[in-house]
Amino acid sequence: MRNPATRFFLRSLLLAIAFQIAPSLHAVIVAGGDGTQNTTGSGAGAGWSYVGTRGVGSAVYLGNFYGDNWVLTANHVGAGSFTLGGTTYGAIGGSTIRVQNTDLSVTDLILFKIDGTPGLAPIPIAAATPITGTSVTMIGAGRDRLNALTGWNVTGTNPNYTWTEVGSGANALGYKWNSSRTMRWGESSIASTVVYNSGDGNVNGLRATFTPYVGQAQGSVGDSGGGVFTYNLSSASWELIGLMLAIDSYANQPSGTAVFGNNTYLADLSSYRNYIATAIPEFSTSAIIAGSGAMLLAISRRKRRV
Length: 306
Prior knowledge:
By secondary structure, this protein is mainly beta. The chain has helices at residues 4-18, 273-279; strands spanning 21-24, 29-30, 51-54, 57-65, 68-73, 82-84, 87-89, 97-100, 106-114, 135-140, 143-145, 150-157, 160-166, 172-181, 184-189, 192-196, 203-209, 217-218, 227-232, 237-250, 257-259, 263-268, 304-305. It is built from 2 helices and 23 strands.
């Protein structure tokens, strides 16, 4: 464990065990570099073309189904004008559908139609919940980060921790957010399955942890509704596996920061694939159908929407 980044990450994990988590979600924050990287489709996979902006959040274009063009986003982002590839499409009034769980309770997901055709083939949705360790690409239009890595010395007892920014001797590391917003992609991996509620209904979800390795991603404000993609070796195609909805933070973590050990929470879209097929009748016969437990998140972590 001679690598400083690894040592700091292990310290962050120790802090994570003790900290309470406060709720939140914004462009994807990417570790390493100067923070301006990953703003083109190069390296992002096929999903880059499908993610656009929807108001203060993000959204994913699913495809054209017999003349109807469908978009998926977070309920807390809402339906409305959707900008994809530099073109803005209006939302068709009365087309919004709130996605439900199998017990008919509502989730933080909605579908809505737009009034134009982006000209993309339907994006496949994953058929099964990904296993732990599955590599994913997160794409969203959330807040940027400042260039420099920031360190804090965290003291006190739970939940009254005190964060002091320091130049050396830090036991927590991360980045401060910037005020600007950019479409960006980053890499991560699935840490676990979860069931969580950030204020808009229970969601069968996935958790991805922010680590200090170059290229690793964490959600920030504005990323809600952004797409999470993985490459399916069996079908040799990119699939939509999740939708970013929320992030967490340590107790009293300074606002507007992404700290190693924070988590991004995603909707597990394989859990909602059948519902989408019912809501969009043509869905089940489309190329969007590709291929072929959940643990309750500890109450010590409070999520906030991004």
